[in-house]
Amino acid sequence: MSLDSLYAKLTIKTGAKMALIVLDGLGDIATMPQGELTPLEAAKTPNLDKLVASGVAQGRMIPVAPGITPGSGPGHLALFGYDPIEFEVGRGVIETLGLGIELKAGDVAARANFCTLDAKGIVTDRRAGRIATEVCERLCKILSSKVKKVGATQVFIYPGKEHRFVVVFRGAGLEGPVTDTDPNREGLPIATAKPVDAKNAKQKKVAKLIADFYKAALPLLAKEKPANGFLMRGAAHQPDIPTFEERYLMKPAAIAVYPMYKGLSQLVGMVKIEGPQTIAEQFERYIAEYDNYDFFFIHYKYTDKAGEDGDFEAKTKAIEDFDAALPILLGKKPDVLAITGDHSTPCAMKGHSWHPQPVLLHSAYSGSDKLERFTETGSNMGSLGVFEAKYLIRLMQANAKMFDKYGA
Amino acid sequence: MSLDSLYAKLTIKTGAKMALIVLDGLGDIATMPQGELTPLEAAKTPNLDKLVASGVAQGRMIPVAPGITPGSGPGHLALFGYDPIEFEVGRGVIETLGLGIELKAGDVAARANFCTLDAKGIVTDRRAGRIATEVCERLCKILSSKVKKVGATQVFIYPGKEHRFVVVFRGAGLEGPVTDTDPNREGLPIATAKPVDAKNAKQKKVAKLIADFYKAALPLLAKEKPANGFLMRGAAHQPDIPTFEERYLMKPAAIAVYPMYKGLSQLVGMVKIEGPQTIAEQFERYIAEYDNYDFFFIHYKYTDKAGEDGDFEAKTKAIEDFDAALPILLGKKPDVLAITGDHSTPCAMKGHSWHPQPVLLHSAYSGSDKLERFTETGSNMGSLGVFEAKYLIRLMQANAKMFDKYGA
To answer: Where are the beta strands (DSSP E) in B301-407?
Structure first.
């Protein structure tokens, strides 16, 4: 029996309420320039401290595997309990979700860049001099007004930032992945998309669609300067993922502000709750929706943003802002509460990293690790140890007594 | 190569002596009502403290998988180093072992309940009003004196507590599991046992045996009141498990008081040592048998019993009683000593739980984690980390230098 089927077999629907609060990129590392504290250690967090004093279990989570730095996609899939190595989500899909575009089962989505071609069709600038977003929007409008279909397949084109856009194909019998048309360096012509599995008829169809799309779209850009061409990458279909509700017997809602995280939560069938813009508003909405759902995924972006900027003060402030709003959530405490990140974004690295993120678990049965605060250094000494993020929701379920005893 | 075959390939028979002391349900959680201490933390344990001061490694063990609460069966199989998901032991087998009944390879055992049937054969009370154990014994005697065989298959019937008994089928070509005849609620007739795998001829034979057993046995109870029927559950065969001695090249003995743990140790081929009733007597027997075996499994029940009762004082006292007897064992220290539980039984939960149990390892090569005591909070910081219980005996073997170096 697989471990997942064992969990499924033991699961009891209890109606327990749970909240998973994700401070994006929360984890950090202590380095000399910042006085050997992490932002979580430097931040004043009276409300978190009070929660810790009331009894929590702590630990650290490996987002994917030792040493692997995840993007937001795999980071969140793991948090949602789906092994990101087993459930691969193509880049085209992630990029599309990131723009707030809804995908349907069977859609194939690809990232695209406007580029510059010379008279012979050789790529001379893979990003067309990073054209302004407005130019990108105008060009996408031209393409989408003229190319609505390729054969019987619908085509949707959505602009992103600067030279970036996405292309979505919707029709029967499509499947990714296919190879990129991006030659990956200047001085080469646009490559031909090929099925990754030569025997896969659906991939072949997508490769052919891309070729036909080029035939229809390239002439429309011929007179544009510098963006007279485009390159496509990461064409993939929305994967077949068991829904969160099927998997955990809990009705899930996502209270996120940024489109990417709304999209990722939708990928596993969470209900998107729209409206809130600040973490305080998100927590208020959690209170308002408390009776309507069993599981709340609440996403907070600003810790990651500050980490990406290498801004220690801003990351510390983002944590303090979160802490200031926390009492709203605690006003109606869920049966099980987890606070963590989807990965670390150390200020010293100005980007995502592989360092296990700290995690805190609070329930009537979490026990207390007798630590004073929730920090990276403290969580190293917690009872949860270092574990893979994909087990977090299983531990939350255990804390809600959602599992029958295994064996007599 | 599988990890198990690697271990096997590297194993050297050394004649080292080992003792695995299992304080059943040892692990606990610190919760406010108990003043934020666990029983292990609250107990006065001068002898354990001395052992820790002499140098031990500590850690915590996940009994089966994150969040899974094990019964005694899976808990002990894991301790004995057999992955409990790979080596499933059916409920009927566990229940039978729990009554102190020996099973032979190929036996199929089922749990049974006396129940009450109305004139139409509908189950009106699944437990026959929880009849007294003496009544159960009398009814079992009737059944076992009249139904000794079904076809060529031998039938054995053993009474348990109150309405419970077990039925063992012994003969050629039998295999479980088959579905329960217990309809799981009142108002329904007795269900028909069916093979879980419809193509499995041995399971089919067992399902047929159960039907024939009902034909022979039910009429014998027709005039009884209230126990005029019975329901069968968890019919399963003794699984094919490699013996402990084959697996570890150590001759194992079990010094347990309760039948269930004697049974579980027999499942992997340990020699049952009968007689001792107290932990002091168990340790004395260990001393007496020291030269006759390599590996001693010593089981202590009272920590679990107190945990199940939610009795913090009693659990603390049980640990202190164990500690008081410990010097007897240490009078002839094994080369490798492990002290742990088979799972946690937190007083606050009055039952088994998924919380990793603390473990202590002592040998000439265990090193010292420089902790003052053996506790849940301390073991969070130990050098063994949080690991799966199935690796414990491998670590004990390593501490006895029972493994060759792997590779040059």
So the answer is: 336-340, 357-363, 385-388
When CB atoms are compared, the residue of A366, A369, A391 closest to B67 is A391
Interchain contact, B385 vs A385, CB within 8 Å? yes
Is A11's Cβ below 8 Å from some Cβ in B?
Answer: no
* Residue numbers in B near A16 (CB within 8 A): none
- In angstroms, what separates the C-alpha of A41 from chain B's closest C-alpha? 20
Which residue, among B180, B168, B170, B182, has the nearest Cα to B140 in the 3D structure? B168
CATH superfamily of the A3-87+241-399 domain: Alkaline Phosphatase, subunit A (3.40.720.10)
Question: One fold for both A3-87+241-399 and A93-237?
Answer: no
Calpha distance A29→A347 (Å, rounded)? 8
Question: B383 CB contacts (<8 Å, ≥6 apart)?
Answer: B57, B58, B59, B367, B369
CATH class of B7-88+242-399: alpha beta
Q: Could you read off the pLDDT tens digit of each residue along chain A, which spans 408 residues? A: 799 999 999 999 999 999 999 999 999 999 866 568 999 999 999 999 999 999 999 999 999 999 999 999 999 999 999 999 998 888 899 889 888 898 888 899 999 999 999 999 999 999 999 999 999 999 999 999 999 999 999 999 999 989 999 999 999 999 999 999 999 999 999 999 999 999 999 999 999 999 999 999 999 999 999 999 999 999 999 888 899 999 999 999 999 999 889 989 988 999 999 999 999 999 999 999 999 999 999 999 999 999 999 999 999 999 999 999 999 999 999 999 999 999 999 999 999 999 999 999 999 999 999 999 999 999 999 999 999 999 999 999 999 999 999 987
**Chain A contact present for B343, CB below 8 A:** no
Residue B287 near residue B299, CB atoms below 8 Å: no
What does the domain layout of chain B look like in residue ranges? 7-88+242-399, 93-237
Is the CB of B211 inside 8 Å of chain A's CB atoms? no
Architecture (CATH level 2) of domain A93-237: 2-Layer Sandwich (3.30)
Q: Is A14 on the interface with B (CB under 8 A)?
A: no
